[in-house]
């Protein structure tokens, strides 16, 4: 394999694509896989990816259909699994050759391309390099630091959405047995707004639809979401909706290739034909305009009902299953069209067209992602889309409902397993009964509050299981400084990333098995389980020999660390858990609702679906009914000379890690420091395509946050908006700029100005 170069920006731009997938997706998937590993290992991973006895894709959380194709994965899934299955290795010799400072100067791309971590490593206080450490000593170092804390709340236990149900259950058990609910997770930065809104209105934090509902829907609104890059197999499901006669409306500030047309690589028509047109209508909305859009749609429904009483709203459903309708209706009638048109950037005619489609549809689903959740008014926006669905009884019936689409394979399951700083009392009581201890009652810290606590010296030990905390979080300079203030940072990881170069006084890298690795324990070969976006729980079995004989599984690492830290203080069978993951699942079945007979049911091919009481019209809200809410009109408006920036992923990127410097569907090549702006906005700002600018965010704390040297690209973005890649632009998102109620960073709504950059390259 050729040596890895740190790539230099060398921007070239081609017109944005008008369709996604097809033969190029297959070629890119295979090309990247073969750049990482051998043809044999590529075949092994791909043929078992998302199969009932195979490896669950560590990418997004889109579910598998009951009848699986032999190649039941997308381009990105193939890249993810073979990025993990790479034959490149990071050894202790690598760390002697590269100081931490030197590694910190490398790009995210370069760090990831070095390969799999193979040995536990430590950076001792004052040292410039990581050095090898034995596992037993590593656990001693962590246990000693944890026990030395003034209070357990000075420790943070972070989880990323790749972590299995079994490891997540053990991590939260360890944290709570230790005495803290400080369990920040990546969900705090993505769908926390969805959970907050759905719990309040429907009494569940999860989506209500299945894949069959998607196929069966008359109308699907895909809002603030780019499935072609972030949940590619969703396009196969939307293709099926279209074939069944349903319609799709895309609502987004950018036109995205996958929502225009999809060429399904699983069939000949997709490979050599024209594919399927997906969106019947595209609403190019301004960032943050979705609340106004749903308020306008709700107003139109109320007015249509006035004109034809009994013909528009589902009065039986509203009477039997909801509360708050009268107050909601009164508030909605005050919505001003003038405000709506400014907030959305849409014409009234466009919104009326959507209304007509809604009137012609008996079964409606709304799907959404970060475009809604990462806004200051993300929670009211999702509450308002629930109002929209409730009005016509589109909740709790086939082909209808809410569909928050999760971006990481087990982010939903981790929450189900108790990774939350404020789990409900029922869960905590069951946990305490199962293990004969009293879990702490006071709430813990989420991700934003965890950063504040480290910054202010209130948290001193950070333990991260998977993920890349420092690049996934906002206000990068503040976050980096916060982590550096810790006495100890611990990263349990498969591959090298930025979070290993931003160290506490002492720092540990604990290398772990990936999804593709075979997991052998004392009782034999193990599998783990995950839960997807549609509450399907299924197994994942690694197929490859582990990247190194020194690796431990996440379950083993957490179990051994817990034993070393807690000693005999709590009677928890950590050794049995490590030896046989079935013992963990037995405990889960007694603690977590919906998991009865877990070990038996998980053996069924494809696993099982967790019950969702909403689909039986059971709403676990205080009133026992679904709740109409009144949401104050709110919009995001940049002052003159400014734009509203949304951060986004490129197509050739997985979460915080670029796999290449391209964004194929958007026509961006060999560069990531680009900012996409509508040509008319560029004219008004006195800029031209390819100008070199600094992006400066404007926030009321007066701190200047600057992302330097970005190339402007004239792009068909919504007027008044800009788009640029994360994590490069996380530096612009103020830590205190969060969604009301959910505390989610507002990464899709940052007010910025573009200043000519001083350096000219
Ligand atoms: S759609 Fe998501 S889960 Fe499925 S293969 Fe692609 S990245 Fe993996």
From TrEMBL:
UniProt keywords, alphabetically: 4Fe-4S, Iron, Iron-sulfur, Metal-binding, Molybdenum, Oxidoreductase
Domain Molybdopterin oxidoreductase, first and last residues per copy: 116-461
Gene3D superfamilies reported in the protein's UniProt record: 2.40.40.20, 3.40.50.740, Dimethylsulfoxide Reductase, domain 2 (3.40.228.10)
CDD domains: MopB_CT_ydeP, MopB_ydeP
SUPFAM superfamilies tied to this protein: ADC-like, Formate dehydrogenase/DMSO reductase, domains 1-3
Keyword Disulfide bond: no
GO MF: 4 iron, 4 sulfur cluster binding; formate dehydrogenase (NAD+) activity; molybdenum ion binding; molybdopterin cofactor binding
Domain Molybdopterin dinucleotide-binding: 643-750
Cofactor(s) listed: Mo-bis(molybdopterin guanine dinucleotide); [4Fe-4S] cluster
Keyword presence, ATP-binding: no
GO cellular component, one term: membrane
Domain of life assignment: Bacteria
Family: Belongs to the prokaryotic molybdopterin-containing oxidoreductase family.
NCBIfam families xrefs: Fdhalpha-like
Record protein name field: Molybdopterin-dependent oxidoreductase alpha subunit
Natural source organism: Hoyosella altamirensis
């Amino acid at each position: 394999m050729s040596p890895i170069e740190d790539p230099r920006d060398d921007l070239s731009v081609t017109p944005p694509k008008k369709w996604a997938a097809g033969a190029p997706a297959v070629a890119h998937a295979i090309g990247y896989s073969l750049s990482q590993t051998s043809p044999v290992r590529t075949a092994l991973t791909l043929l078992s990816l998302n199969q009932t006895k195979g490896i669950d894709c560590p990418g997004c959380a889109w579910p598998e259909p009951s009848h699986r194709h032999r190649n039941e994965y997308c381009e990105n899934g193939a890249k993810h699994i073979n990025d993990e299955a790479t034959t490149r290795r990071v050894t202790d010799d690598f760390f002697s050759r590269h100081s931490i400072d030197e590694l910190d100067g490398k790009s995210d791309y370069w760090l990831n391309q070095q390969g799999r971590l193979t040995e536990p490593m430590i950076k001792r206080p004052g040292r410039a390099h990581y050095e090898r450490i034995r596992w037993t000593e590593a656990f001693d170092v962590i246990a000693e630091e944890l026990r030395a804390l003034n209070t357990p709340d000075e420790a943070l236990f972070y989880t990323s959405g790749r972590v299995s149900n079994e490891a997540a259950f053990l991590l939260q058990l360890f944290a709570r047995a230790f005495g803290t609910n400080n369990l920040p997770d990546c969900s705090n930065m993505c769908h926390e707004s969805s959970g907050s809104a759905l719990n309040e209105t429907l009494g569940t934090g999860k989506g209500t639809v299945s894949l069959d509902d998607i196929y069966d829907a008359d109308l699907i609104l895909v809002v603030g979401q780019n499935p072609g890059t972030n949940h590619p197999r969703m396009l196969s499901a939307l293709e099926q909706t279209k074939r069944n006669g349903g319609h799709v409306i895309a609502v987004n500030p950018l036109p995205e290739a996958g929502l225009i047309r999809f060429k399904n690589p699983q069939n000949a028509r997709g490979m050599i034909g024209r594919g399927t047109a997906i969106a019947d209508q595209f609403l190019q909305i301004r960032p943050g305009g979705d609340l106004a859009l749903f308020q306008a749609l709700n107003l139109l429904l109320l007015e249509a009902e006035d004109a034809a009483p009994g013909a528009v709203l589902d009065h039986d459903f509203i009477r039997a299953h909801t509360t708050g309708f009268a107050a909601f209706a009164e508030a909605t009638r005050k919505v001003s069209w003038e405000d709506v048109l400014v907030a959305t950037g849409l014409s009234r005619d466009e919104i009326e067209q959507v209304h007509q489609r809604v009137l012609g549809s008996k079964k409606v689903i709304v799907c959404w992602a970060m475009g809604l959740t990462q806004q200051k008014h993300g929670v009211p926006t999702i509450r308002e889309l629930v109002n929209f669905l409730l009005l016509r009884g589109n909740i709790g019936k086939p082909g209808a409902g809410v569909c928050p689409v999760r971006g990481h394979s087990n982010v939903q399951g981790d929450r189900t397993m108790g990774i939350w700083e404020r789990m409900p009392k029922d869960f905590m009581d069951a946990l305490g009964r199962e293990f004969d201890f009293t879990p702490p009652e006071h709430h813990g810290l989420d991700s934003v509050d965890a950063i504040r606590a480290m910054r202010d010296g209130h948290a001193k030990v950070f333990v991260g299981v998977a993920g890349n905390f420092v690049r996934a979080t906002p206000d990068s300079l503040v976050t980096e400084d916060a982590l550096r203030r810790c006495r100890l940072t611990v990263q349990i990881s498969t591959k090298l990333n930025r979070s290993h170069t931003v160290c506490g006084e002492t720092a540990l890298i604990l290398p772990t098995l990936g999804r593709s690795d075979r997991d052998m324990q004392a009782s034999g070969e193990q599998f783990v389980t995950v839960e997807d976006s549609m509450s399907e729980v299924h197994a994942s079995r690694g197929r490859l020999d582990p990247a190194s004989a020194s690796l431990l599984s996440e379950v083993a690492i957490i179990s051994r660390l817990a034993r070393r830290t807690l000693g005999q203080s709590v009677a928890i069978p950590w050794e049995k858990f490590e030896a046989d993951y079935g013992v963990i699942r037995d405990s889960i079945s007694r603690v977590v609702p919906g998991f009865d007979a877990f070990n038996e049911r998980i053996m069924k091919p494809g696993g099982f679906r967790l019950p969702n009481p909403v689909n039986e019209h059971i709403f676990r809200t205080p009133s026992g009914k679904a709740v109409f809410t009144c949401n104050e009109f709110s919009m995001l408006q940049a002052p003159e000379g400014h734009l509203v920036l949304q951060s986004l992923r490129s197509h050739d990127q997985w979460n915080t890690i670029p796999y290449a410097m391209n964004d194929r569907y958007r026509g961006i090549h060999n560069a990531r420091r680009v900012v996409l702006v509508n040509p008319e906005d560029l004219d008004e700002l006195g800029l031209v395509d390819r100008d070199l600018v600094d992006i400066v965010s404007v926030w009321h704390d007066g701190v200047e946050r600057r992302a330097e040297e970005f190339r402007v690209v004239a792009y068909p973005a919504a007027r008044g908006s800009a788009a640029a890649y994360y994590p490069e632009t996380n530096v612009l998102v103020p830590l205190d700029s969060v969604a009301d109620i959910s505390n989610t960073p507002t990464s899709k709504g940052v007010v910025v100005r573009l200043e000519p950059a001083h350096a000219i390259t």
